[in-house]
Amino acid sequence: MWYILLSEFVRDLRKQKLRAFLTIMAISWGTFAVILLLAFGQGLSSKMIEGLLGGGNQVMMIYPGQTSTEFNGLPPGRRIRFTEEDLRLIQERVPGIAYISPQYGRHNMNLRSPHHSVNTYGEGVGPDYEIMRTTFAAKGSRFINPYDVAEQRRVVFLGDEIAAELFPNNDAVGSTLFIDATPFTIIGLMQPKLQTSMNNGPDSRRAIMPYTTYRNMYNERYLGSILVSPENPQLQQHTVDEIMKVLAGRYQFDPADTEAVFIWDFIEFEEMNRKVADGITLFLFSVGFFTLLIAGVGVANIMYVVVKERTHEIGVKKALGARRKHILLQFITESLLISFAGGLLGIAAASGIIRFVISLNLTEGAGEFFGQPILSYQVVLVTVGLLTLIGFAAGVFPARKAAALQPVEALRYE
After folding, report:
1. What CA–CA distance (Å, rounded) separates 54 from 197?
2. Taking the alpha carbons of 25, 292, 377, 195 in that order, is the dihedral positive or negative?
3. 180-200 in b/e burial notation, b at 16+ Cβ within 10 A?
């Protein structure tokens, strides 16, 4: 049976060579568009999220502010300042905290090596900072550990870009670096990363030391901010509320006063960006879908022509006992074969373009932010599903028309 269907399909293609060729090319182009748009859309979405996570991975940055309302007889306008004691209180009283780190910081910190001198933003932080801010150490180096903090060691971790400037011979790790005229040992360099969200400049140009070392070196009493990451991001709002209660109780301000303490919520920001990325993917999919849908109209047209040309043949088949389902199956199968033939060509062409772009390894300039196209099996499955749906829809109506023909009327048609 399938052999007969295929032979009839080939015969129809030979009779309608130009129309069949144009229809298959239209399907190919539509498939090509769907694959490319989805692949590049996924690549762009992936880079958007990667760039965001480069600034912080499911973290909240808590900044001190100034009270804006009266509370328990205390006037508004009181300045809030954090100390290291606040970290201990948050850890003790707020459940579900996975990571936490203090953040001291200052601009124009002078770094001097035997090769170069540069001013940059420097920070004093704890070991948990590495995971929260994705400042992972490059091979052969390490980040700050608890012993560095406890012993107030003069060690420093450098961003990859500034390390290359200070030590062009790639011998930074283990070398001595003078920070504001004080000698430090370089223990680690940051792995290169994409960062589209940042505060006080990119991490690639940052100098990081243990917060105890920073505090004593600069005689700092107050923190610049506190970095917190909850165990369960789904309970992010509950964690925020509990932190506000703890700080409000300590500094005597209204927990609802958002100006007393400002929280930069990366978790909420990440969720918003994921929705934007999904929206971009959906838009690109819609463009490709309608392109493919127009090609499907061409398939329907050629199937109506085939039904018209084979009316007499249909009458003979029905007179010899062919059932309605046999006629339906014949024309729907031909419609699907046309769709799949064009679809395979489109998938092959799109795959070739995507592999070529990936081989170019565009990781600099615009390529760093737009990302490489991603040809995933989900994209292929979605495309095959669309081809099946459009092929079936394009064939079912001509097939129903063919199956509804009366044998006597069909046999009169010449």
Report:
1. 7
2. positive
3. eeeebebbbbbeebbbbebbb
Could you give the CA distance from residue 94 to residue 245 in angstroms, rounded to a whole number? 9
Q: Is 246 helix (H, G, I), strand (E, B) or coil?
A: helix
Compute how many other C-beta atoms are within 10 angstroms of the C-beta atom of residue 249.
12
Q: Judge contact between 92 and 263, C-beta under 8 A.
A: no
Tell me if residue 287 falls in helix, strand or coil: helix
Which is it for the CA torsion 228, 234, 240, 246, positive or negative?
Answer: negative
Burial of 282 (0-12, 13-18, 19+ CB in 10 A): exposed
Token pair 């400049």: residue: 201
Q: What is the pLDDT of residues 136-181, one digit of tens each?
A: 899 989 999 999 999 999 999 999 999 999 998 888 899 999 999 9
Q: What are the residue ranges of helices labelled H in 54-145?
A: 84-93, 129-132
The CA-CA-CA angle for residues 259, 247, 130, to 5°, reads: 90
* Least confident segment among 5-9, 285-289, 388-392: 5-9
Predicted TM-score (pTM) of this structure: 0.67
Q: How far apart are the first and last CA of the chain?
A: 26
382 Cβ neighbours under 8 A, 6+ residues apart: 34, 38, 285
Q: What is the CA radius of gyration of the chain?
A: 33
Q: How many CA atoms lie within 13 A of 126 on its CB side?
A: 15
Strands (E), 159-299: 176-179, 182-189, 206-210, 225-230, 261-265
Average pLDDT estimate for 202-223: 92
Task: Read off the amino acid at residue 134.
Answer: T
Q: How far is CA 62 from CA 24, 28, 240, 377, in A?
A: 59, 53, 10, 41
| pLDDT tens by residue, 245-298 | 999 989 998 888 888 888 887 766 677 767 777 777 778 777 777 777 777 777
Strands 176-179 and 97-112: antiparallel
